[in-house]
């Protein structure tokens, strides 16, 4: 799966890593629902860090279509809330 972190580029992640990413996504959603800015910030950074850790960065000149688009690390709760779908940021 190809993931784009806005402002950073594309990262390829394995399907096997989706479960751990979904768990972090659930925690992020809970922080958004609680409107807890401090926890939101920690959970957003944890999700993005895990994507970077488990994934492989694609070259900047790669033209692969992104299957997921994640917010930048400095996104606000409102910006991330607007990006959430029925299944969060990470489907599954």
Automatic annotation (TrEMBL):
<feature type="domain" description="PspA-associated">
    <location>
        <begin position="1"/>
        <end position="92"/>
    </location>
</feature>
<protein>
    <recommendedName>
        <fullName>PspA-associated domain-containing protein</fullName>
    </recommendedName>
</protein>
<dbReference type="Pfam" id="PF22743">
    <property type="entry name" value="PspAA"/>
</dbReference>
<dbReference type="InterPro" id="IPR054437">
    <property type="entry name" value="PspA-assoc_dom"/>
</dbReference>
């Amino acid at each position: 799966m190809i993931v784009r972190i806005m402002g950073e580029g594309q990262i390829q992640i394995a399907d096997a890593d989706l479960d751990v990413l979904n768990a972090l996504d659930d925690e992020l959603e809970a922080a958004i629902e609680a409107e807890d800015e401090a926890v939101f910030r920690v959970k957003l950074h944890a999700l993005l860090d895990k994507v970077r850790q488990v994934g492989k960065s694609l070259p900047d000149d790669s033209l692969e279509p992104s299957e997921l688009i994640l917010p930048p690390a400095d996104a606000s709760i409102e910006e991330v809330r607007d990006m959430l779908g029925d299944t969060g940021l990470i489907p599954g």
